[in-house]
Amino acid sequence: MTPLFPDMSQNPHVDVPPAQLAATGLVAVILRAEAFIEVALAVVEYRHLGGAWPIFAALFLLPDLGMAGYLVDRRAGALFYNLAHTYVMPALLALSGFMLSADMPCLLALIWAAHIGFDRLAGFGLKYPAAFGATHLGWLGPTGR
To answer: Tens digit of pLDDT for each residue in 74-101?
Structure first.
């Protein structure tokens, strides 16, 4: 069975130049356009539902607490970061809000989704355990972009 987060440090292909691992050309444009649309839709819907902007600002960076996993090791860091930066989690939160006819879970899910979209727009993708800079969007930092 393939592990959920393969250990890329044991993978001989990790030595591929970072530029070859990055999303480029039309693929990069599409990924950034999707991220922009996600941020825009989340913000517009948050406004439509009457969410309070101070709460939006206060909670916008909350998903970055997932980086605390890096205090343990790279594998835990990637796992917790990715759990906090996948659209699955805010989608489940929003679904619970819809099922309960409650606005607050939906508003929180929109803040969360806006954060994820903003991160992806900035080039921060889901992490591989090899390094914080190894993402599904390509490499970040001095070894990459």
So the answer is: 999 999 999 999 999 999 999 999 999 9
Q: Within 13 A of 145's CA, how many CA atoms are on the CB side?
A: 16
| Lowest-confidence region among 2-6, 30-34, 51-55, 90-94 | 2-6
pLDDT digits (tens, 9 = 90+) for 52-76: 999 999 999 999 999 999 999 999 9
Q: Is 50 left (phi over 0), alpha (psi -120 to 50) or beta?
A: left
Closest listed residue to residue 105, CA positions, set 89, 128, 119, 83: 89
> What is the spatial distance between Cα 13 and Cα 43, in angstroms, rounded to a whole number?
39
Order of strands, sheet of 127-128, starting from the edge strand that comes earlier in the sequence = 127-128, 131-135, 138-139
* Residue in this structure with the two tokens 């980086």, named with its chain if needed: 67
Residues 6 or more apart from 51 whose CB is under 8 A from it?
A: 107, 110, 111
Return d(Cα 13, Cα 7) in angstroms, integer.
11
Residue 20 neighbours by CB under 8 Å, 6+ apart: none
DSSP 80-133: HHHHHTSTHHHHHHHHHHHHHT-HHHHHHHHHHHHHHHHHHHTT--PEETTEEE
